[in-house]
Amino acid sequence: MEGFRPYGIPECETGSIILKYEEFESIRLSDYDSLPQDEAAKHMNVSRPTFTRIHNRALKVVAKAFVEGRTIEIEGGNYRFERDWYRCKKCHKLISGLENHSRCIGCNSFGIQELLSMNEAL
Q: pTM to 2 decimals?
C-alpha cells in the first residue's frame, strides 16, 4: 500500500499530501491495534513524548487530506523492519519472510516481490 485516494475527486484537482511511514505506524499501533501510547512508543523504539508528536502529526495529515479531498502518499521517514517482507505482485498480499512461501498464500501465485530490506529502509 502506497497511499489512499479520495473517492470521486481527481488527484490533479487537489494534489497529494505525504504521510511518513512512522506516522502511518503510529496510527496503526495506537488507533488500529488500540495500544496505549507508552506501549506503542516501545514498539517504535521512541520515547512516549516523541510518539505523541509523531501521532499528532499523522492525525493532522489525515484530517487535512479528508477535509481537502487530497490523496495521501505513504513514504519516507525513519524506520526499520524487524524481518524481511514480501508482497505478491498479483493480489498484493503482504508476506513476512519467505520461509515456506514459494507461492503466495493468498492467491497461489509465484509472483513474490521483496520489499525494502532493513538496510535499505534506513
A: 0.65
* pLDDT tens-digit readout, 3-57: 888 888 776 778 899 999 899 999 999 999 999 999 999 999 999 999 999 999 9
Q: Which domains does the chain have, with CATH numbers?
A: 3-74 (1.10.10), 85-121 (no CATH)
Instruction: Report how far residue 51's alpha carbon sits from residue 73's, in angstroms, rounded to the nearest whole number.
Output: 20
Cα–chain-centroid distance for residue 25? 6
Contact in structure between 59 and 27 (CB atoms under 8 Å): yes
Q: Do residues 33 and 39 make contact, with C-beta atoms less than 8 angstroms apart?
A: no
CB atoms within 10 A of CB 26: 28
> Cβ distance 10 to 71 under 8 Å?
no
